[in-house]
Amino acid sequence: MKQSKSMTDQYAVLGNPVGHSKSPIIHTHFAHATAQDLAYSAIEPPLGDFAKTVDAFRARGGKGINVTVPYKLDAFAYADHVTDRARLAGAVNALKFDDGLAYGDNFDGIGLVRDIIHNLSIPIKDKQVLILGAGGAVRGILEPLLAELPESMFIANRDVEKARALETLFAPIGPVQSGGYDAIITAGYDIIINATSASLSHTYLSLPPALFRGASLAYDLSYGKGLTPFLARAKAEGAAHLADGVGMLVEQAAETFAWWRGIIPETRAAIEAITVPLN
Ligand code: NDP
């Protein structure tokens, strides 16, 4: 009994604060469903102590970690090797420890794309996509979204310079344009993604009237908040589908789990376990 306990592989999510994280629930679901012997905990490094905390976790035999706010840039700096998509995003949301090295990747974007295409059955190819926000999450989702070949993509942000910087960075790989909220055209977008953190504080965005008329999807990256002001507005204007970021969260976790363990978990049960109804 004692021996098998010491052999259990250790994983964790690191964030500050981390108490709200659903990652322990999700990965424990995956471990049971795939009969993997692993333990998954939540760790809150004091601000400024990310590297020290990760070193200590590795010294205890830790095999990998998820990283959430505010440590995705620290994780990027910590990694010995990062993937191209993590480099483009400038952020790492998962680390794997192997042979004394730390490997970094960013699964946020692939999680979003899998949720939209596979779970919601909504194609991105040839669609007109509007993204609200230009923060860390947007950096992670742009490349995987562009890989699905949308017809156009407009990034709108309150701080226009941040949106412009992303346009400059990503325009070589797809049809990206950017501007302020006043540059959003009033209709014609198929997929509208709220990647601002406004929903976390239940804040209304300043959006043009009838923006959601004819839209196939309104997607809010925030999760567990029910019908956010963004989703309520989309519902009132008749967007065909509404979604929050639960599916994205679980799908990125599944990608991470597969990277760590070499086995792809089924995601439906984990999504259902943490879904908050959108009403
Ligand atoms: P950042 O802090 O990096 O960026 C925040 C963005 O929101 C900026 O573009 C900022 O604009 C904008 N913003 C904040 N408040 C307002 C407001 N009142 N009006 C207009 N714009 C506003 O955050 P992240 O990019 O890391 O996260 C964004 C959201 O995505 C959060 O809700 C987070 O929880 C969610 N998320 C979900 C994930 C999932 O798996 N579902 C994964 C990662 C993130 P400005 O630049 O002008 O300040």
Summarize the structure.
The protein is built from 11 helices and 12 strands.
**Reading side by side through the largest sheet, how are the strands ordered?**
2-1-3-5-6-4
**How many extended strands?**
12
SSE string, helices as H and strands as E = HEHEHEHEHEEHEHEHEEEHEHH
How is the main sheet built? 6 strands, mixed
Indicate the radius of gyration in whole angstroms.
Answer: 19 Å
* Average pLDDT, all residues: 95
Verbal overview:
- The chain has eleven helices and twelve strands.
- It has 279 residues and is α/β, with parallel strands linked by helices.
- The strands form two sheets. It has a six-stranded mixed β-sheet, with helices on both faces.
- Helix 9 links the parallel strand 11 and strand 12.
- Helix 2 packs across helix 10 and helix 2 packs antiparallel against helix 11.
- The termini are far apart.
- The N terminus is likely disordered.
- Bound molecules: NADPH dihydro-nicotinamide-adenine-dinucleotide phosphate.
- NADPH dihydro-nicotinamide-adenine-dinucleotide phosphate binds next to helix 6, helix 7 and helix 10.
